[in-house]
Every structure is written in C-alpha cells, then in structure tokens.
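Service request form, structural biology core

Requester: graduate student, group of Dr. S.
Request type: structure prediction, single chain
Budget code: on file
Notes: please return the result as structure tokens.

Sequence provided:
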Amino acid sequence: MALPLRYSLRNALVRWRSTVATVLGIALVVFVFVLLQSLAAGIEKSSGNTGDPRNLLVVRKGSTAESASLIGRQNLQDIRYLPEIARNAAGEPVISADVLVLVNLPRRLHNGEANVLLRGVTPRGMELRPQVHLVAGRWFVPGHREVVVSAKLARRFANFDLGSSFKSGSATLTVVGWLAGGGSAFDSECWLDADECRSLFERDMYSSFLIRPVDAAAAARLIDRIENDRRFKLKAEREVDYYRKQTMTAAPIKWLGNFLAVTMSVGAVFAAMNTMYAAVGARTREIGTLRVLGFRRRSVVLALLLEGGFLALLGGILGCAIAFYWNGYTTATMGMETFSEIVFEFRVTPRLVTEGLIFAVAVGLIGTALPAIRAARLPVIAALKAI
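Core staff response, request fulfilled:
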C-alpha cells in the first residue's frame, strides 16, 4: 500500500524551519552551478555568433589566432585577383586585409589596465561584416588617426567617450564613433583604417585576410588552392568555423563551475542527509504507526524520497530563478586566444536550467536515500516505544 502524496507535503509544511534550511542550501549550490556555466555559455555564444558563413578567413599556418598570424603583403597581391573571389558592384574583389594590434589601456575609475584589440580594416572589411553597425558618432576617416570603439568597451575603459583621445606608444587616436557587433566577438574590438594601423604601429605585414568567394564551389576550390600553394603557407577556413573554435576561454570557467558544483554538492548532500535524519528521528513513532497500519517498508522509503526530492526541486527552482536575474548582464574577462579584453553576456539557457534542476533533484535524492532506508528498517515495536 502506497502512502498518499499529501503525507510528504504535510511533513514539509509542519517542519518548515528544516524545510527552509534545506531549500536554501540546495538553492545556493544550484545558483553557483548555473551562474558559472552561464559565463561559459556567454563566451561560447559570443564566438559562435561571429562571422558570415559565406566568408573565408585566411591566417598563417600554425597560428592559433589572428593576433598571432603574420601574412606578407605580396600574398595579398597574389590572392586578391583569383577568379574564385567575388566582386562588388564597383568591380573590386571582395577581400579585406586586416591588421590586429594589442594595446594596453587604463580602465575607467582607475581600476587597473587591460589589453584591448585594435583591428585595422579596409572598406571591404566593413562590407564583409554587416552585423557590425554604428550606434553613435561616425565611421573613421583614413589618415586622420581616428578610431571607432565598441560601445560595450566604452563603458569599461577610460578615454573611450566620443571625442576623447588615447595614446599607445607614439600613436594618439581620437574616438569618433561607437560600434555594436550584435553580440559577436566584434563587441570586444576597436576599428581603424588598416593601412594607417600598419603605419602607426610599424607593422610590415597583415594579420589575416577575409574573403567572399563567388559561391560554395568556388570557396572549396579557393581553400584548396590557398592551402596547397607552397608560396603562401596559409590556412583558409570558413569564418564561422574559425570563431567557433575560439572558445578556449570558456573551458577553465566550465571546469571551475563543475568543480565548485561537485564540491558544494557534497556539502549539500550531507546537509540534506542531516535534515532528513532529524526528520526521521522526530517521526520515529509516526513511522512505527504507519508500519502497524499496513504500509510497507518500500512505501516509507518512497514517501521520504518524494519529500527529499520535492524540497530539492524547490531549491533548484529558487537557485535557477536567482541565476536568471543575471541573464543578459554584460561582463568581461581576458581571452585565452588573444590575451585581450573580451566582452560577453551571462547566458542562462533552457538547457542550463534543466541541468540545474536535474542536479538539484539528484542531490536531494542522494541525501535522502540513507535516512529513508534507516527509517524503513526501524523495528516496529521499538519505533512505537520511541519518545
């Protein structure tokens, strides 16, 4: 004979102090787990949301990122007029040679310094990245030492207000606009003219080429031609594939989230176990009475497991709700690929919420299992004589 569900619910309400303690303890564990995983999800979302599937990105063979790639100017002349490359309305090849430079700049409120990624782009580079658009000011004018910075970076770094200037080495750049990258990796960059960037920072080479092939077949031929030509020593792949691989920064955060979740879950299991042992101790005579009334041991175990699982589920819902409050909050960290400031948002996804709830219920059931078994094994006579 199974115990009615209202039995477990009634016990949770009657012993509300221990119920609240259990729910809050599990909520804290789930909150930390979901929040740290949402950090990693935000970084992965930023990289996965970058690029156009029609574009090819070309970097030096052996380089792990654009910032570590060096491509000679002669390579640009050899590649730009290949027949596989599309042309715009003006008949110009749709290819951009970009230059990436790291500069160390002060944060706002004198909160230290950090590396910022400057990208030198050509007019074709802006044409190839339609997801990037101005939100304030205007685009830079080549030759005037002007720069357009990410609006999200502007909230984090000093001298990034419109009309302000900042200095790096011998170069002084004036901020004339703010850009938005649509939640992509471009939200972590500042743009200026490519040739001016090479001149100001004394770079004789480019960092990467961004190319728009005529079609998918032309893209495959172009990749094969670039990678197999011994003159180039270059690697070409779809732009979106390149950025999806740039998620090394998310790995340590994921590992930390899992480590803390496991460590804290051990404490949560013991807390749940302690609460349920106390509940069983207070209900010894009640459990003996249930056994006399004909309820089997497995019914008692099931009732206590339902109670523990229900409390854990409440804690999981509360923890996910608190974590969801941070969804969309913008923060930043140092990118492992570029060693520069990368801006991203907390992403509390449905998958993370589901994982958090499953994790909470698992903690509750594990913490309740031993007290439930002990309760079921209590001798009936001894239970009825308990005070």
